[in-house]
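Friendly challenge for the regulars: who can give me the structure tokens for this chain first? No prize, just bragging rights.
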Amino acid sequence: MHPPNTPIPLATLAAALPDLWSPHILAELNGQYLKIARVHGDFPWHTHDHEDELFLVLAGALTIGRAPADGGPVILKPGEAYVVPRGQRHNTSAVDETLIALLEPIATRHTGTEQTPQTRTLAQQLA
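First reply, four minutes later:
Bragging rights claimed.
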């Protein structure tokens, strides 16, 4: 976790992360975790049955895949955010390396109802 009562340089910290698609928890607030990640390529389709998930692009571009019935893909640029509603099947992808922040309830499992090689536990995200 980031030291309390100090500014959090989201993009700087995200750029320094060693692994792709491996979120790092920076702060806890009101039952939510603030996370950052460095991403590139494709992340598996998954669902969070009980939690909404907010994505904020810090640098690069992120595509959030959604079913056509849900409106199809959403493309986010730096400074843009999108909330994936609970229960909506989605994936994420980035053509180029992209830095993101996430805000989600503490109980949110990384890959929701799916278990993949990219799945990270909360303990791994706190490390």
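Residues 10-15 form the longest helix (6 residues). The chain has a mean pLDDT of 91. Your move, everyone else.
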